[in-house]
Give the backbone structure.
Amino acid sequence: MSKPKVVVLGAGYAGLVTVRQLTKKLSPEEAEIVLINKHNYHYESTWLHEVAAGTINPNQARFMISDVVNPNRVRLIYDTVQEIKKDENRVVLENSEVTYDYLVVALGFVTNTFGIKGMDEHAFFIQDIDSARLIAEHIEYQFAKYSAGEITDDDALNIVVGGGGFTGIEFVGELADIVPKLCKKYDIPRNKVRIINVEAAPSILPMFDKDLVSYAIQSLESRGVEFRMGAAISECTPEGFIVGEDKELIKGGTIVWTGGVTGNPVLGKSGFELVRGKVNVDADLRVPGEENIFVLGDCSWVMNKETGRPYPPTGQLATQEGVVAAENIKALIRNEPLKDFVFDDKGTVASLGFSDGIGNIFQGKKLQGKAAAAMKKVVDDRTLYLVGGPKAVLKKGKVRPF
Ligand code: FAD
Ligand code: NAD
């Protein structure tokens, strides 16, 4: 009898952890493992705001998949998933097709524009390595053009960021670090460049308490970030964001939208039942009614039984789901009972640039300033370790022992 074929879609946090765990838990005789990803590299989605600001090199935030997954043990296919034909146990790729016995869908997030007019056409998104790199290149090009006299309007130097959630705030934190350096490089006075964060809600970062939020606002304002809170963006034009009832235009030469994310559109195209763009999975991480399909990470909602609400989609959640999905696939193959997923919340930290941040760790301990920034780097390296092992941390890690 041929051995069962496990196909994993996406080599992000959830997908890569699943594959690495499967290779540890199953012998080569027990299952064939296939990993399909758009690129031949994995990128750290949680570092993309740094790539977008230009505070780290894109190559620091990615590594080759074949460096951390043995191609003799796992068949690696670099191709783009178009559709999952659930009824036929088949995945359609851009250039070929693959059949499966067990499927793990871990295709991550895409930026959600909520249908806001002009957003797709005129705003940049922090979505993957290429889209993030484009933002950093664009910002620097604006500075270069201004310096060369090719543009004379000061507004062209403004960087406007829509959304004051984690991504928007971590991004403006990086901008506050890089803008003074770019000003020096291009002989532009710092006061000519505005970094403006635009948030619909009355305040930013709703998941943190008032003290930490006011610390973040004060810290960022002192480094030149302006906030427009309670300003819902209703449209994006080539000149900037339109906000409020009087349709005020907040102008910028670089317009970035960080107003939210949703699950990969492949899910909808493949006929999965969606709730706000993602699949509600059972406690064992399988799709209800689909015995052999797991949906992980930013493509699914997993219910927190204590709160009755789904866990917020994070890298931390995605890596933990990868471990349980691998465990459950092993159980299916060996005809053993499946486990329920239980999230082990290790806390939340948001960076505000290289040496500042805020966070809640160890069930309620608050952190701010340099301690939070240091903790963020430890968390980043821990996640890198989970997907890439010690070599990835040594090559790309952020904590420098000396
Ligand atoms: P991803 O890690 O995004 O991986 C998806 C993979 O699928 C990618 O390799 C992609 O190339 C591939 N793919 C996509 N479409 C296709 C296709 N059609 N065909 C083939 N391959 C495809 N969370 C935290 O816990 N802590 C943080 O500090 C944090 N910081 C963040 C900072 C930013 C700027 C952003 C945007 C998010 C941050 N998050 C953070 C959230 C976290 O990044 C996501 O929750 C996490 O990446 C989800 O993991 P995933 O495995 O579902 O998807
Ligand atoms: P988000 O949904 O968390 O935040 C989006 C923000 O945009 C919200 O504050 C929202 O009020 C605002 N917004 C929405 N529509 C708007 C409009 N029309 N005008 C103005 N503002 C508007 O999205 P995100 O920040 O991209 O985060 C996505 C996910 O990634 C979250 O689950 C988050 O937890 C996770 N993440 C975590 C970290 C971290 O742990 N350090 C960092 C980045 C992202």
